[in-house]
Amino acid sequence: MRRTVPLLIAAICGIVLIVTAFIPATVSWGETAAVWFDILAAIAFILGGGNLLKIHLRRVSDQSEGWAYSLITVVTFLLTLGVGLFKLGISPGSDQEFYGETFAHLTVEQMPEELTFELPVDLSAELLDEEIPASVRQQFSAQTDNETITQLRFRGWMNGGQRQDLLNLHQKLDWQCSIEQLADLAAISDQLAGEVRYLADHRALSVSGSLNEEEETYLRSISDSQTWQQATDRLVERSRAVTSYPISTPPANFQIPENYQDRITLTDNTMDVMGPVGPEMKSALADVFPRTRPFTEDQIQQYVDELAALPGGLTDVQKNTTTGLLKSDWTADQLIAVLNDAGVRQERTKSACELLAEMQAGEKNLQLTVQPTKPDVTLNAAQEDFIKQSTSNPATNLAAMGETLSTLGDWLPAQEAALQSFLQKTPTIPMRNRMIASALITGGETLSEEQFEFLLAGYREQHNWQEQMYGLMVKSHRVKYPWSGEYIAVGSPFWWSYEYAFKPLTATMFSLLAFYVASAAFRAFRAKNFEALLLLGTAFIILLGRTFAGVMLTSWLPESLSAFRIENITMFIMSVINTAGNRAIMIGISLGIVSTSLKILLGVDRSYLGSGDE
User: Transmembrane residues, as ranges (predicted)?
Assistant: First the structure.
């Protein structure tokens, strides 16, 4: 049995993989077999590791010949296994963590009955033949009666992604209309929207930022169940924890954003924050440096003159480069065009319920979209003049322009969003100055220390402040998956042992092998016969063609005889003769693999089981 089972496993896996390579419909079989192969490989690794420890520990215990090497093997094996398996000293993976969120454990079964939403329907039971999407599998269910679905049920709140997954399950209007109605029933209240959500896959109730008193009161009012109240208690406690973080002197124009003034306290060189800091909050705190705005000709010339007046001066090329970079910045006309494009009203796609109602009413030419009834909004002359004046006036707050533009004419929310998006994409003044500094030192040009200070002082301050805000976000974060980082992440113990122990030892081993190779080559390259002479001559040409001296030996040959230059002869041997030999060898290896695999699959060769005998 010990030999039969491994033989059957090898035969079945091999046959499945061969079949999947030729029949596309069976590709999923190969994926399943690969999963089982990984499981078996893991078991084999455990058995192999245990056998390694058994053998070497016995040598150490008996102090047999070479027991010191066995001790080194055991110690290094256990150390590598420990730091790699348990990921010691590795930061959690940033793509696995939920920065800015606090969690309280709550399974789907523990969700209160008040958050179970039911919708009476009359649908064909055939609609449930398709596999339910994984994102809703734990929360979505249906009640059937004979061949009819009579009720759809969803436990917890339904998010946009879950809604879309259910809509994509079927293209029939009655199904999609029912899902739209169920999604409306299971939508989270406006009082909690954007702040609280439920993640069924993580079995957790989540709050973004800090849960304020109004949100807490509403959350508690949903249900009186003990598990719900306990989950709310945990959210309140964890989301209101205060993090103190030491900071250097804030930037001169730093102000706590209005949205976060109830959560942040700044005293001396310490910032106290209530609740975790998310990416959005971190960006708001870090984005305090002024952004670039269009320069007039006079402002450009003043900038260039000020930079040229510093020790070191500027060459004509550097002056032209600086002028060109400043002129290539954005303009007021570009912003006006973006805002006018945002003022174009978009068509609205009809819901499935609207289309279903029209179809039931007898409509034959169904239109999928609804044309806008209101005209497009284009900036008027007063708004355009205000934008042109504001963009060149350093005293104007560009981000607050929307408030004034809304008083000068029609102004849509889409235009306000386009304005903020446009400004976010423009670089800050320190970033622009750094880009200018980088451009001015290309091509062998230099700058003085004073010029570097003029261009880079602001960027150093901005980078330092951004790093501090990132540090604040990390410190306030409550780790959810501590072992989610890559085991070979730079700076980790595993990475250190690989870079500073394994690689040097490998280099040492191959360095020693080089002497053995040279000795073997000396013995092999003796021209005792024609084959040895051919090998010696080919090796000599290849080695000589890879050196500078070899190339110089035949560099005098004219272009008409360039094929006889030693570097070209080397290339011919490697690309033609060597390739032909490699192909022959690979064909032989492939045939050997096929024949050996067939012998293993058919049970003819059982040497991998430990013996060729029965």
Answer: 7-27, 33-55, 67-86, 507-525, 532-557, 569-594
